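User: As part of a screening pipeline, I want to sanity-check one entry by hand. Below is the sequence and the SMILES for guanosine-5'-diphosphate. Please return the complex as structure tokens so I can compare it with the automated output.
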Amino acid sequence: MNQDTIAAIATPPGTGGIGIIRMSGKEAEKILNRIFRPYSGTMPLENRKLTYGHIVDGNTILDECMAVIMRAPGSYTREDVAELQTHGGIRVMNVVLETCLKYGARLADPGEFTKRAFLNGRIDLSRAEAVMEMISARGEQEYRDAVRQMEGGTADFIRTASDELYGLQAGLAACIDYPEEISDEEGTKALIPGLEKLISSLEEAMDERSSRLIHDGIQVTLYGTPNAGKSSLLNALLGQDKAIVTDIPGTTRDTVEGEIMIDGIRVHFTDTAGLRETEDPIEKIGVERSEQAVRNADMTLLVLDGSRKLTDEEKERIRNITDRCTVLINKSDIEQVTEEKDIRAVNPEAVCLTVSALDSATLKPLKERLKEQTRISDRMAISQPRHIDAVRRAVLSLKYALATLGSLTPDMASTDLQAAQAALAEVTGDQADEKLLDRIFSNFCVGK
Ligand SMILES: Nc1nc2c(ncn2[C@@H]2O[C@H](COP(=O)(O)OP(=O)(O)O)[C@@H](O)[C@H]2O)c(=O)[nH]1
Ligand SMILES: [Mg+2]
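Assistant: Here is the complex for your manual check:
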């Protein structure tokens, strides 16, 4: 149990209708009683009941407010928690916070309330991380993942796996302890099917691709010759005029970015400076950035002007496309000189779509293609990069155990099963050192 009492402004910095100042710890109620005067005059406050009154420092009124005390263990942190709902002004919230500090609270570290909830056993580590994911979630899928994890989806899965593993460990221990009753060979053989099943269920549950999609979305880069219509396509895809469009080649000198949601996944577009030889030093840097954006993309769109013939440079680019690339033949609304067959003649593998930045209906097949890229697995129980890393280490140890069970003595496998168990425990925080906790909670915002 922590001894000191922490305080922080829990609402976002800025002005709003209401601002919440929160305290947690042994002194929370004592401090609250010093600075809060209920209109009814009745003290102490009723547990978990919102009460109207004034915040005061001695005889000075600081604000009108609503206050609540949630006594341990029935609170977010399992400690005494006091919350003050003041007016949501920057100055008033700071004055109230300073008054809490003056009477004995200490300013909370980022994530410290949630850290206490974890340390006091109210939530496991994966749920604590879900709180942060919930706060930072921007996409629908990320938000849903946070809900799933907050409701214990990850913790339940890990604890079930861990129980199965304990079963296997017990079986193995029996072989080691009673060699005269169970022969090594018999005993270890019996464990193999369970071990294999556990490995495949863990492997199935972690899906790195879906995890990345949920948290990072996908990066799509438009590239190609100047004037092909990249910026126009970006604007059409975003449904807003983000990039400047002119008929002067070299208009886009820096990368321009924008984001849309497809099925709850963030699709992040980067429009680039057209790729061409140039003496202009600024445009040169733009071209270098374009090349970098192409390298970093999950998916690239090579934009060609269908009303012109392909240049040698473009043919070279078509030859060099990767399987992440879709070729867009743009300007289908005017007379076409270059068509799909011309692209295929250069590279039979090329995936082509004919589009017009001026006609959003032609972008439908492109959006369908993007949609395919954003599909995520619905069987995923492990979705956080940190959890995936731990589960992968667990699987590795289980595979070592499987290999040793066949050939070496049971003692060797036993060490590997223990290592797997420890890796699983990192996810729920049943085994977590201070360093790991600091790393996780320092990413939180203050007041949560
Ligand atoms: N007719 C037609 N003109 C287009 C289309 N897309 C772009 N343009 C025109 O082509 C020129 C260059 O467009 P821009 O988007 O700036 O090309 P970028 O250099 O590749 O970014 C502008 O005059 C646009 O209006 C299209 O689909 N159809
Ligand atoms: Mg442009």
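Points to compare against the pipeline: The longest helix spans residues 153-177. The pocket of magnesium ion (ligand 2) is lined by residues 230-231, 243, 251-252 (CB under 6 Å).
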